[in-house]
Amino acid sequence: MKIGFLGLGGMGAAMAANLIKAGHQVVVWNRSPAAAEPLVALGAVAATTPVQAFDVELVISMLADDTSTRAVLLDSGALASAKAGLVHLSMATLSTALVTELVELHREQGVEFVAAPVFGRTDVAAAGKLNILVAGPEAAIAKAQPVLDVLGQKTWPLGDDPLRAVAVKIAGNFMIASAIEAMGESTALVKTYGVAPGEFMEIMGNTLFNAPVYRNYGALIAEQRFDPAAFRLVLGLKDVGLALSAGQEQRVPLPFASVLRDNLLEAIAHGDGDLDWSALSQVALRKSGQL
């Protein structure tokens, strides 16, 4: 299948590489052209504009945020250039407000919009083991399924309303951020009683919280291994902001999201914005005078 891929950050580059290796013809575009070079070496075609990347059978966008998505899809004229019947997999974490707008604009253009955000870090993406949340027109999802099967270990269907997948992704990331904050506060507490963070997280990860989020992030927190970042703290702030905005739209209070936002802002003010978002755990150490 001829596939366009826009956004070649850590996640996007790994996903596009897997599609090339699976035998698809992939047209890649990135704001910084150098990011496309390793993929071209694998067999991709580098587009010079987003419009070129939309001249395909199926296009995937994996862009950082609402602002970049609006610029690449709308301001560039890419969506306006798309042929009717094109399937667009939007795999980034976007706001419910922007997705609502995109659904309508795609409908007007005759393009099928499928929300397909993912759970998994860059290493999971490289292994083709993402969990993919999918919602959109049934026929469009069926057309995209062979592509989704390359990218992920499981596709989680959530119906025909793209906002359902978006809401699950936003809520899931809110839960991850909450877990990181809880681990940070808990390790700060036990450390004052002479319990090493690594010892504490080993116990928790093998008893009450035997789950990937706690095991993986617990190890990063215990070892203070925040660089290089698999997911930057500034993006965590963006995602918590998406949760707060979604909650406000539906009149759902999210008081702990406000705590997370403030602690993430404090971490960024301290210079930790480009570290892995597990560095949020450092805020509790600083507040308790241990750092």
From TrEMBL:
Residues 1-16 form the signal peptide. Gene3D superfamilies: N-(1-d-carboxylethyl)-l-norvaline Dehydrogenase, domain 2, NAD(P)-binding Rossmann-like Domain. The active site is at 169. One of its GO terms (molecular function) is oxidoreductase activity. GO terms for biological process: organic acid catabolic process. Residues 167-282 form the 3-hydroxyisobutyrate dehydrogenase-like NAD-binding domain. The keyword Signal applies. InterPro entries: 3-OH-isobutyrate_DH-rel_CS, 6-PGluconate_DH-like_C_sf, 6PGD_dom2, 6PGDH_NADP-bd, HIBADH-like_NADP-bd, HIBADH-related, HIBADH-related_NP60_sf, NAD(P)-bd_dom_sf. This is NAD(P)-dependent oxidoreductase. It comes from Pseudomonas multiresinivorans.
